[in-house]
Amino acid sequence: MRTPVAIAALTALTLGACATPRAYNRVDAQARPALNKMEGVLLVKQGEIGSDIVVSNLAAQGGLIQAMIDAGINSSRTNKAEEAIIPIRDKLIDHDFAATMESELEKAFRASDISGLSDIALVRAEDENYRQNTVKGSSADAVMFIDTTYKVSPKFDMILVKSDVKVFPTNSALNAYKEKPDDDDNMVEHTDNIYRNSFQSSASLDLVADMETNAAEAANLPASKFISALNTAATNIAQKIAKDLMTDDVEEE
Fold this sequence. Notes:
By secondary structure, the chain is of the alpha/beta class. It is built from 7 helices and 5 strands, in the order αβαααβαβββαα. It has helices spanning 5-15, 64-84, 86-91, 97-109, 130-137, 211-218, 223-245; strands at 38-43, 121-123, 142-152, 158-169, 195-204. It has a 5-stranded mixed β-sheet with strand order 2-1-3-4-5, sandwiched between helices. Helix 4 runs parallel beside helix 7 (223-245). The longest helix has 23 residues, at 223-245. It is globular. The N and C termini lie close together (11 Å).
């Protein structure tokens, strides 16, 4: 729910600063009667599994020297991770994680009261106007975009899947329920959403040592170990998204 302007202004005056925006925006209960059909789009633009690092942040202490040290540390860690992940990428060369994620989302949405979500479109690349054109051309009441990435954790001990989800209305009856209603022609600005949230899911590779040791052991694991972990993470995150989408927003005190 959106806090009335008067309350927001009073809060700002009282606290001397604007409240921090919420990390999510769920569908208002009053919007659901107009939200009968939704078009779902899964975007997975990776061609292969990614790697991650623990980012050095000495620069937070301030100073050019700290920033330079950060850059050197992060570059070294990135190079090590990219080298270590090569054997894992080779094992997964024939595995299509994006198709798995698409299938798991369709399964998770079958129990939804909103039609259309049992047939998710999978997109692997997009141009700058893709989302705007998709929303404008949709015959559904709203379009949901699910941006998903997948990678090995910094310690090479887990598979991590992350999804950022936004729903943009096409039905004018839903415009009043945008996070920040407006009347301009851009239909996919950040605050044009009637729903947004971010999700992360992990699945263990059963490796318990440091990064270097885990990476060496991971290189000897069978492809089935990684595929099983990817499938588990995909299933879990799809279920989280489906459940949260059907959860009404609650006005904060």
